[in-house]
């Protein structure tokens, strides 16, 4: 944020250590454990692992709920991560489902 650069290898090592440190964590089927980091959905796990640089990647928790009215909670979805990668061009996409490939390359 101060205009300084960050070494890519150091970031990858920090992300790797974060991921390895959570081996054995439970799955968060309610998608609402973004503060305690004891259970994770797939996208919450990515958010947690990249916590040291999430502001640079544009990874942000968003308020979501059923019909956007009920059971509201702050979470992150795979679409949010994809948006940071594809739309904001902050991450490299290394794999895409066929449906996303067709959507983005008509």
Task: Work out the radius of gyration.
Answer: 15 Å
Q: Strand-residue fraction?
A: 5-15%
Shape: globular
For the largest beta-sheet, the strand count, sense and barrel status come to: 2 strands, parallel
Poorly predicted residue ranges? none
Cα-to-Cα separation, first versus last residue: 37 Å
Q: Average pLDDT, to the nearest integer?
A: 80
Q: How many alpha or pi helices?
A: 5
Q: Helix- and strand-based class?
A: alpha+beta
Strand ordering within the main sheet: 1-2
Can you characterise this structure?
This protein is α+β, with helices and mostly antiparallel strands. The protein has one domain. The protein is built from 5 helices and 4 strands, in the order αββααββαα. It has helices spanning 8-21, 42-49, 54-57, 78-87, 98-104; strands at residues 26-27, 39-40, 62-66, 70-75. The strands form 2 sheets. The chain has a two-stranded parallel ribbon with strand order 1-2. A two-stranded antiparallel ribbon has the order 3-4. A hairpin with a 3-residue loop joins strand 3 and strand 4 (70-75).
In short:
The protein is α+β, with helices and mostly antiparallel strands. It contains 5 helices and 4 strands, in the order H-E-E-H-H-E-E-H-H.
What descriptors fit this protein?
two-stranded parallel sheet; alpha+beta; 41% helix
